[in-house]
Design a protein that fits this description.
The protein is mainly α. The chain has a domain of 49 residues. It is 80% helix and 0% strand. The chain is built from three helices and no strands. The longest helix has 29 residues. The protein starts with a helix and ends in an 11-residue tail after the last helix.
């Protein structure tokens, strides 16, 4: 039976790897920071209007906050905060 299930285990491993890479890309703040830097540079160069800048900046800052919240959630999931035993009898 192990020999028959080997292709399925291999396929499952491929799907797991794809999911890991997609999640990493989704929550990679470097790309968002680079886009934010580009946005500031375009504003300074005059190639972007202030309304468009403010709209995109708000979107990117919200995305960074979402990424940070996700990272905090993952950290808490992996290492749950310990509860204080003070007051316990």
């Amino acid at each position: 039976m192990g020999l028959l299930s080997a292709p399925f285990r291999g396929l499952l491993r491929v799907f797991e790897e794809v999911a890991q890479r997609a999640e990493h890309e989704l929550y990679d703040d470097d790309a968002v920071k680079a886009e934010l830097l580009d946005l500031y540079q375009r504003l300074e160069a005059g190639s972007l209007g202030s309304d468009e800048f403010e709209r995109r900046e708000a979107e990117l800052v919200a995305r960074l906050e979402e990424i940070e919240a996700h990272a905090q959630h993952e950290q808490n999931r992996r290492n749950p905060p310990r509860r204080s035993r003070r007051g316990a009898r």
